[in-house]
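[step 3/7] fold_predict: job queued, chain A
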Amino acid sequence: MTTRKEQIYEFLKLHAFTSESGGVTTQYLAERLNVRRPNVSNLLNELVEEGLLTKSPGRPVLYKIKTKDATGADTCFDNLIGVHGSLRRAIKIAKAAVIYPQKSLNTLIIGEPGTGKSFIALIMHRYAVAAGIISENAPFIAVDYKDYQDNETRFLEALLDEDGLAAQTGSGFLHVDNAHLMSTGLRNKFCSIAETYQHHDGEPLTKVSPTVIVACNGANQSACEDFSKKIPLAIELPSLAERSLDERMELIQSLFTLEAARAKHTLTISAELLRCLLLYETPINIKQLKGDIKRACAIAYFRERNTLDGNISIFMSDFEPYVRKGFLNYSQHRDEIEHIIPTDYSYVFSETTMQMSAIDQAKLKAGNLYTEIDQKVSALIERGMSEEEITTLLSAECDSSFRNYLQGFSQKVINKEQLQKLVDPSVIDLVEAFLEEVSSQLMETFPASVFYVLCLHVNSIVKDNTSQHPLSNHQMSDLAKKHREKYTLSLQFATKIEKTFNITLAVEEPFLITMILCLEDPWTQPVETPVVLLAFLGKGVASALSELINQLVQQNNTFSFEIPVDHQPTETYKALFDLVTRIDRGKGIIALYDMVQISNYFEMIELETGIKIRGIQLPLTQLGVEWARKAAVADDVNVLYQNMLNTLPQYQNSVSRVIVTLCTTGEGGAEELKRYIRQHGDVQEMKIVPLSMADPEQLRSSLLTLQQRAIIHCVVGPNDPGLFGIPFISVSEILGAKPANLPQVLQFKNREKSRINFDEVFNYLGEQLEYVNIKKLRRYLPKMIEQINQEITPMSLDTEIGLLMHVACSINRILGQESLPKNLRKEQIIKEHNILYRKLLQIIKPFERAFGVIFTDDEMANIVMIIKKL
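[step 4/7] structure written:
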């Protein structure tokens, strides 16, 4: 009797014989053979792994019999990304080197680190086997010269001994990596040895005749030239930056597909993250891209390894901060990026997303990082560690620390009238013009102290024409080396002083001016307080406004950042980064800005430095430009005025308002509160977001993310989390008010508490909960709550309501066979509140029997958290 797999294979052979189509889908086979689709999918993938079928990339996935041509040598390079693009010439040379008559030619592969030199060498070996140039048993031996860098003699011995590398390779391929590290003399010796392995008049010159493939870093031009003179063929590989964005996208897809297959989960990635991966700088090329993706997937896998739906979301925070900097290059590639990755899409990768090469399939069968994570977790559990302790321990292996900057400098208001009593006005004008030029070129804001000191210093040298501050040669050299740009500008300024005042300055003067530019203004009062930063487009806008504010308030806590009209994103980001780290006083920054892109810069700086930045967009420039253009073509001031008033609401309403509902998991009571408020609260203009209170840090992070794109009107829940000064409305106020009065409660009017009508609460739950017998719930749940009040601890009305909503929703999910959320703090909570936990088990047992359910320890931990307000 034939097996299902054999039936599928025979059907496909028949289909191939009677049809010229490109293959069949899983669904087609399932319907034709009357077999469940998941079973067909598993058997098809087994046939692919056995080399009997091929499957197409993309959607829909098509399966067909693997023909003789499909197993030929030409397919060895087909899975390389760029085979018809950036790697086309490299592959052509590689094939020519392998199939050269009599014997494959020695080959030099040139490329930057991480461009795939060793991988190409491996593919060349596979191609030689598939083409019948060498036997299937001919080995591929790779050696890294870096391991022998300190001892050339040891390398030659390892190569030439009777049982050395050359002898082990035989007629196979010997790959030498990092050959550019060899000395000139060793390069010549090695090339001479490699030449003896080549055939001459059809006969090898030595007993062993491996084909030698040398990999060399293209940055070492001398080494590349030396090897090129002796090695017949050279393959040059492009850097990742030199490859098209389409190819880079294919690489990213391939890497995520492989990680999804290894983790045995689907991976979901946002469009924004993919765009950053396409555009961020990768000094180590494909190797870096691969490493960054692997690390992020490992972090995400560890975080969501217990997810029941088989999907893992990869977030920007799973990557190193430098990946986010990809958005700095967005404007240069806007059209191309939006064509490749449309906005607001989410991308899902799985093992079937793309066809995997044989090499990738081989990697899957070996041990992988995700198996290691599971093994580590199991080992730590056996040692008695809690889930929270395990999370802390393993997260430390994955997460990188962000730098924290604790320095800050105050900006003093310049009083020119007072200064003119001490300094010549022409000196003040000269210094002011110089600092404006330096600020513009270096995109750096200088504290007032620099202006004062520089004015006084220039005034003194103009009057005395002598330097009172001799510097050593070492000091001058050190200044010029560390502050090259400032020194160059100071040199030009010194020349201008000489011409303006017809004097000759001492050689130390440009260095002294450089030292003044590097002055750091210490805080007048070392008090940790937030500061205000104004970041506006155009020269003088932000600085004039910040100067005025400081004059009026006299707190010296407002700073400015001016964005040139023709700014370059990378330079602007660096200058803004430097300014933020200088002005922070330890309590964060309120930033007012007019360019949308600046919000991304602030988000990135916060990730890198740990400095809290809260940004508010004020589109003053945008409004001004729009109104100026309309004024230029208007002929009636009243019509223009009304038109301007009509445009204001689109800016005023650009930020939406949000109500946040809370419960222990975010999936029970919080969802029901959301539905109740939506039904009775008259909040059509507001979005309602349910969140979990289980993890205070996660809640803080979620609220912070919400604040960046919306105004949080209030938080509704069993108890006030007390975060960010957000107004709080208790659940008893929501459910205690008559439905008709709920809109007033949500607007903080008529907030007198009234007793809750539990009948109305149960009636509402009866309308919303699909699987629960409300009559039975009304009979048993109040008794259980009252028993907890009497035997464990008295609960507030808000806590009672929170517990009632949570338990009712949990019962509904269990009866509906829905998955319940995991409580990552379960072990710790049960351990710390063990007496309460055991007492709860007794109280809840009759309740479980009445409904035919069992509460897991995760749910018990959630109930403990509600009762104890954890």
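[step 5/7] annotate
The domain at 531-624 is CATH 3.40.50.510 (Rossmann fold).
The longest strand covers residues 656-663.
exit 0
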